[in-house]
Amino acid sequence: MLDGKRVLITGAGGGIGQAAAIPAAAEGARVMIADVNESWLEETIEIIRAAGKTAEMRVTDVTSESDVAGLIDDTVAALGGLDCAYNNAGIEGAWARTADSTLENFDRVVAVNQTGVYLCMRAEIQAMLKAGTPGSIVNTASIAGLAGAQFMPAYVASKHAVVGLTASAAMEYARKNIRVNAVCPGPIETRMLSSLASNHPRASEAMPEATAMKRLGQPREIAEAACWLMSDRASYVTGVALPVDGGMIAGP
């Protein structure tokens, strides 16, 4: 799907981001991966190399305007341009009821999940407009960006914001041939879910039963949806917040 594309993926040190980087490189894309954790990035690079492919990497804090600007500059320089971007970096934050949550946690989650997506998307669009070439951007939202969820007010607020940012940018740049979409994962087997299982075992155990398919999703299942949205196969798709959740959002 992404053969010949120049692709940037944030949050690529593990989970969904890593699962997207591996097939993108395997399919012939030129790939830049970014994450705040260097050792995680190196792990992804090693997996890609073991498959006989290559990728560039850059340690990046998506909450930093200067870091994001440097990432986009390095991506354009290393790959020769930017065709597709997958803004996947995100955190879940601390679990607590709204009245028991802290402003410090709220600000941190919003900084990564909301401001980070905004900063990346803004810089990516600027690069695409400057080049005058078609572009495709995908943001990781969540089913928690489509409905409420208990014990995670900051996460829910930030992911609703990602859905809104996606729709706004899609409307603004459709006639410039830049598509902007979001993928909305349900419960996926990642480090984030492992953290939940450690701290809230009952909640994590209930998640598979909350889906119509009665199972957790795998990172590759989200990654493949994101890769499709980035690709030319989704050429008439923009402004979409696509649930990939085993039917979780469909039920009561």
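(the above was protein one; protein two follows)
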Amino acid sequence: MLKVNGKDVEWKADITFKEIYRQIGYTISNPRVIVRINGETVTKADRNGFKIPNSAEIEVINTLCGG
């Protein structure tokens, strides 16, 4: 199980950030966000190859604001 922005999300081996984005409601394929896993920032360049461990706490912070 993962915690994403405080909510439980089912973990599975090789889960990707793209899947996590969909599960938390992002509809665009490449959202402009900051991602922290267990308190450490994961750069956009490193996200595709990053292996998300089970029981990780993930913060996804939206950097775009509407008006």
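Reviewer note on protein two: The domain at 2-62 is CATH 3.10.20.30 (Ubiquitin-like (UB roll)).
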